[in-house]
Amino acid sequence: MLRLLDAAHNEWYRIESLEGPEEDCRRLLDLGLTPGEEMAVIQAAPLGDPLVVLVRGMRLALRRREASWIWVRQ
Amino acid sequence: MSSAKTVPPRVKSEESKPPSDLPGQESKRPTVCLVGAPNAGKTALMNALTGGGFHTANYPGVTVTLSRGKSKPEFGPEVNLVDLPGVQSTVAPSPEEELSCKVLGGAHHSVRPDALIIVIDATQLERHLKLAGFAARSGKPLVIALTMMDLLGRAEQSVNVAKLSLALGAPVIPVDGRTGWGVMELMASLRESINDPSKQSNVLGGLPDEPVASYAAVRKIIEASGAVRKGNPLVLAKDSVTARIDRVVLHRYFGFPIFLLILMSLFAAIFWAAEPFMGWIEAGFEAAAQLTLSLLPEGVLSSFIARGIFGGVGAVAVFFPQIVILFFLMTLLEDSGYLARGAALVDKPLSHLGLHGRSFVPMLSGYACAIPAVLAARTIPSKRERLLTIWILPLMSCSARLPVYALLLAALLPGSPWKAGLALSCVYVASMLAGGLTAGLVSRFILRDRSSSLLAMELPVYRRPLIKPTLRMTWSRSSAYLKRAGTPIVVISAIIWLVSNFGFGSRQELEPGAPPPSLITVSELDHSFAAQGGQVIEPLLRPMGIDWRVGVGLISAFAAREVFVSSMAIVFHVAGDEDSQQERLLEEMRTATFAGSEQRIFTPASMIGLMVFFFFSLQCLSTVAVVRSETGSWRIAGLQLLFYTGVGYLFAAAAVQGLRLFGVA
User: Fold this and answer.
1) Complex ipTM, two decimals?
2) R_g of chain A, CA atoms, integer Å
């Protein structure tokens, strides 16, 4: 298991769990980042933050802080 | 793709006229709410249904207040339409999301929906159907409007509308709000649902609230329906048009240069492309003023209309072309999808200052005018970041400051336009730095709770903007600005004209033999209320190195900053046509001295002091009014006015005294 933050780009991972502030995590769940779902980091913005991720056919800009809450498995 | 556009059979049935079609039943007109995720194409659909321009953009979360309208008569019996703000989540909702929850829960005081149009992006079925579950729980009859059908091909996806409709137990109508495609069918289906709600037994209302279970249920429904052929996720990630554009505009080295290039082109267009139009508007208002003076008998009324109304409104109307160009280009950037990338690019530096990536759009608009900028701050999700953004917006160097800086720099650096230009650029950069610094300080020491900041921002796919909707949107935003800013400007211009043209009768110089004056009478500026006020505050102005006449200019600039220039022309008795006016004003300013002494007023020190004052001071009562209505608080608006004007005064006085200390006159 690793954090999405440390995931390789353009590889698909399966979400295991979300561990962060409760309300923020609930909002991420509502956005569709639910455990079991597959997602990929496509690229990082020029300053390395935010990351551009793909989940449920949606492109999402996630701060590194937010990506560190998401635990994934390849 | 052919299967994607299949229209469900329900819609085809010919309409028997429902009873609500009778005239005189206005109050019985059903209310229909449009609900859906941000960026689902909801507002574009609202535009198509009502024929009126509402705010629409390819930038998540644009709708934040309830915009209302009436369906166009060509779609059959009219319904009232309400565009609800997008709801992403019901946990820790933003004020906008809370509003939507209230309406859907039947707890809103005036909006009680009879039916819902649920807007769903065909490329985002799972997510949007999950969100639809929340709205469907209200039990109202509903119709699903399926948008973005044209984007399915790009993602190698397809959706069978008939099968989807069958599986959901609700009518599904493919539409494109931007072109109006499918809107007729949508309205027909909606009427059917309202007239016979019992026919509906949609499964969406039964979706659980808990997100994991809800998503699982939605996936099961979609898979069982066989309506969707999923795209290749690798294509989405690497080979789609959007992925390719993103690789360039979010490139590690090219990302920021491209961003800056786009911003600079935007500024260049605002300032240079607007110039001829501004000239025409200026000439138009001057002509109207002259015409009034020549048509009406000479007197207070003609002067009031010509100088007070046309003069005051004209001074602000000249900026309208800049505003229109700003809105046009912003709409293009939004609709294309780039604006969300811009917000993502600057999120990191801005979040260091306690702001949010989305603060960038209002800050950018602030360089044209603070009023649309304050309105644009609505899209910022957390209240703290929204407030902080609004707080620093008056520092952005708005275009109303430009004529003031131009006049002062021309006086300060005569005969070297390039030096003046360079100084002006420095002022612009400095205003950005001052904004950043202020935000940083306020978030460090006052608004310290930064826990609730979440970016998680959808980056929409790139789309080619369509000309007609873009123009319609530009117009609706520009005219909304005119209405918003125009009223206070007319009122304040009128008040300022009155106080600078009337005075106490007892203070007037009387011609010998004239009858004794009434209590309040028409007067020269020197004896007007404004002059008296100016003289009262003159001790305050001394530290800034200016006299009461410049003070009158500063006070009148609260109507709008550029009014300072025309007031200076009035107080220094400069007359003449437009072209020679600035020359003569500069000449007057060069020779002006304090009353009863040889001391010059406009020295390098006092002119730098004036520029410092204009740099900080919140001299725009229209901005105060807008901040008050957006924050719902007179305290914040008043505090902001006092803070910036106070800081401007202190820094200006400090600059003047400091410069004098170092031997600069």
Assistant:
1) 0.95
2) 11
